[in-house]
Amino acid sequence: MFKKIDKGMILGIFLVAIFSLLATIISHIDFIERYGISALVIGIVMGMIYANSVGHIEPKEWGKGITFSAKKILRFAIVFYGFRITFQEIASVGAEGALVSLIMLSSTFILGIFAGVKLLKMDRDTSILNAAGASVCGAAAVLATEPVLKAQEYKVAIAVSMVVLFGTISMFLYPALYSLLIENPNSIFHMSPKEFGIYTGGSIHEVAQVVAVPFSIPNHPEIMANSAIIVKMTRVMMIAPLLIILGLWLSLKESESKSNKVKLVIPWFAVYFIAVAGFHSLNIVPKNIVEMINYVDTFLLTMAMTALGMGTKFANFKTAGAAPFYGALIMFVWLVIGGFLVTKMVCSVI
Prior knowledge:
The protein has 350 residues and is mainly alpha-helical.
């Protein structure tokens, strides 16, 4: 059995793990942590720098391990991402939080694909990855969508870079909007702390960015943070049905183009993700064990992101041009303005 072990694959996985460990250490530096820059983002940047500098001297055999990290480890990590969510948390935010999550996710995803494919003439995969990152949960959503599309690494890197850019802008913009317009009870833009939390969770890209915003505001950060995080995790939960629907839609499109029977492609890792979240909702696993699982899971996601970075060449970005930026900008404007209007409307009705 041991003779069948691929030494090159093991060394490739080890290389990815070393880079991911460095990314994790860097992410805990005070300055980096303060701005919500996750190890996942640092990992893909480090991977891209490696690929475009000394990556050409890497032994060819190591490529199997890098691919394994980007594909297999990714699916495993997405499944165990379910330990970050419980059905009770989703229920606790109320119907308004769930409805805002659903409206913003679906509208942003559809808008992103329409703007990318129809208006900006981008390829389908880049448009969908861009839309997934903005509409669901940033880099993790891009990673989860990649196996369904079987997209090229550089397209994933483009979508992640858009998440980083506009998510970072959000971290500074939202506290400023709150101080200037939203906090004043006499303003037409006024929101309660809970409403602002729902708005934040329903419209900002990354989980880490959502967490950072309430705690950068002096008044009522706990109330805002609780609402924001739960609404955001509701959006994360919705990645599973979204990917299943996307897989079915892609299967139908493929069958139409080939004029043959429909071959259903169900992303089972998304189904397992829901199952794990349901299991976690039973509160059987001790909290300290869950924390350990989440820490390991973050490291595995970092490995997947780093491996994707290692497969990305800067030359490929030239083919995409400025279209992904404009597509992400259109979605960003909708998230900020549309997210505000949707939150106000839903909270006033329910």
